[in-house]
Every structure is written in C-alpha cells, then in structure tokens.
Amino acid sequence: MQHRKLFSRMASTVVVFVLLSGCAAGRSGQVTKGAATAEKAPAQTDNSKTQVVNVYTARTYAVDELLYNQFTQQTGIKVNVVKGKAEELIERIKREGQSTEADLFVTVDGGILNRAKQSGILQSVNSSVVEQNVPQQFRDTDNQWIGLSARARVIVYSKDRVKPEQLSTYEDLASDKWKGKLLVNSSTVLYNQSLFASLIELNGEQRSEEWAKGIVNNMSRAPKGGDRDQAKAIVAGEGDVAIMNTYYVGLLLNSKDPEEVKVGNSIGVFFPNQATTGTHLNVSGAGLIKDSKNKENAVKLIEYLSGKEAQTQVSKENYEYPVNSTAQKAELLTTWGDFKAQQIDFAKLGMNNPKALEIYNKVGWK
Questions:
Q1: Name one Pfam family in it (predicted).
Q2: Which residues, listed in sequence order, are joined to residue 106 by a DSSP beta bridge?
Q3: How does residue 87 score in pLDDT terms, banded at 50, 70 and 90?
C-alpha cells in the first residue's frame, strides 16, 4: 500500500511538471498552452480525476486553439494538442499502435483523411449530433472522418489588368492567352496536388496531363512561395492571375500589416468552372482514432467543432466555409456570393494523388 501511495505521488508530480513545462513552452511560441510538442506524447493524466482528449493535428491556425479552450471551458475536458505534418502523424499513430495516446487526428485535406482511414488508424464516429451537423458530402462514407470546414481553390486576378469576363475555367488557364501571366506555387504543395487529383477524376489522365503542360508553359516565373506570395507577386507585376485558396485572401484583407491589406484589395476572386464541373473544394476534418482511450470525449469534441457556434467562429476568424448549414459565413465570403462546387468523393483526392505527382514530375512542374 505504501508503495502504491508513493507511486501515486510521484506520478502526480510528473503530471504537474509536464503541464507547467507545456505552459512555459507555449509562452516561448514553441507549443500551444497546455499542449505537447510533436516529439512528445501528451501529458499522462489520471482520467478518473481530469477528463482529457488528445488531438494530433496538422492544422496550425489560431482559431483552433481558441475553440479548444472554449470547449474546455464549457465541458471541463482538457484538450492536449500534438502538432506535426499529417503524414508523420499518421505514421506515428500506426507505430504507437494500441499504446497511442491519440484520440483525434485532424488535418486539412480530404485525400489525407482518406489516407488515415486506409492506414487503419481510424474508427467510425457514431453520433446523431454529428450527422445532423455535417452533411454526408462532408463525411467519410463510414463516418471514420468528419469534415469540419471547407476551402475553395480559385483564380485570383489583378483588378487593374484583368477583367473577370476574361476568366472561365481551370482548363482555360492552360491556353495561350495566359502565357507568361500565370503564377502558381510548387507541385509539392498539397493544395495543388489535390486540385490536380480532382481534375484527373473529372477529365481523365490524358487531358489532365495536357493541362499540366499548359500551366507550366504559361508560368511567369518558377513556382515558389505560398498562396499569399502569389497574390503579392500579382501586385508586384510579376503575373496577372494566380491559383489560390480563398481563405488566404481573407487573411490578407484582414491582416495587421497594411501592405498585405493593400495586396488583398488589389486582387479579385473568381470561382472557375461554374458552367461545367464546378470549383474545386477541399475539406479540413477530424478522424476518431481506433485505439482512442478517451473516445467519448473525442466524440464530444467533434460534436462541438461541428456545431453552429464553432462553425460560425472558424469562418469569421479564418475565412473558411462552414460545413454546418446553420452556421453563419464570414461577411467577406458572403460578398463573394454562392458558387457551384465540384461533386466528387474527397477520397478520390488521395487515390489520384500518386498519379498527380507522376504527371507533375513528367511535365516539369517543380
């Protein structure tokens, strides 16, 4: 009995030390408050005293931490966060097996979510609340992952040099009229891989390869930088049109940096393929880990994140599209109007990813 008491006191001391260390690291900007780094497992907690849920996430947005904190305030369930690259987190969870501390896997791409499912690390989410909050189109067919927000990959253009009526489809960007005028980032960017994977699904490999060749021929410079860098390059006169995710435009327009706001105001947003296959839409989501030790808490967190309040907040803070139809979109998104989206299974983004990479390499999209 004395040994048990001694062990209990030692374990409690370790928990307190780890939690305090996490908070201190959060102040230094290395990890979020109360979270663990990607190299360390979440703090071991006596669940009989403190309810927890451990989230392994590839998302790095401030609004996520805000929502996790609000969830804790409402439920008393502490959210421990491990951050890392999606593929590395999947491999880590596979390697840890039944001993994993992960309860939820969160990432930004439907193809990656499907990869997690195919890796065998997820289980089905059984919740009438989730099914009411999230339409089937934003959920895995077996509910092994649940969409929590969406973003459109659109064409942005210089308001000074391009008229919206000159724009039409993704396919048209490969035509000669845009030669030397197109800006886009690297083929290593997941957003570009998933866009191309969707075009392969809709148009077939041969037509898609011709499109990729045309895009490379029309680039005004070698691919570099992130989405916001493409917008800045338009304003700098390095190109007239670019491919970007919509939420980056929102972040530019609402930046604390006046120069970024200027960039945001200088570009227009165009939703391509409205008369054909629709604009490419991708999804962020969460998968319930098969070996979760805190399954009930994890499902509660998914229910909260997919609810009207949280969905409205993620849209207003990060300019993503809510998947819950009862939530309010950010005012900026409303000004852009409704649009027709591609109607394909998000799993296809992952299934077609290897072929997309093969063709990118073949045509020289670096």
A1: SBP_bac_6
A2: 57, 286
A3: very high
Q: How far is CA 307 from the centre of its chain?
A: 18
Name the DSSP letter for residue 189.
S
Q: What DSSP state is assigned to residue 267?
A: E
CA distance linking residue 74 with residue 110, whole number of Å? 29
Q: How far apart are CA 168 and CA 134, in angstroms?
A: 31
pLDDT for 49 equals 61
Shared-domain flag, residues 144 and 161? no
Strands 280-289 and 78-83 come out as unpaired
Please report the pLDDT score of residue 2 as a whole number.
Answer: 39
* Residue ranges making up the domain that contains 155: 151-280+337-363
Q: What is the pTM of this model?
A: 0.84
Q: Residue 42's pLDDT band (boundaries 50, 70, 90)?
A: low
Cα separation, 199 vs 310, in Å, equals 32
Question: Do residues 81 and 208 share a domain?
Answer: no
Same domain, 186 and 63: no
> The domain spanning residue 245 has which CATH number?
3.40.190.10
* 140/190 same-domain check: no
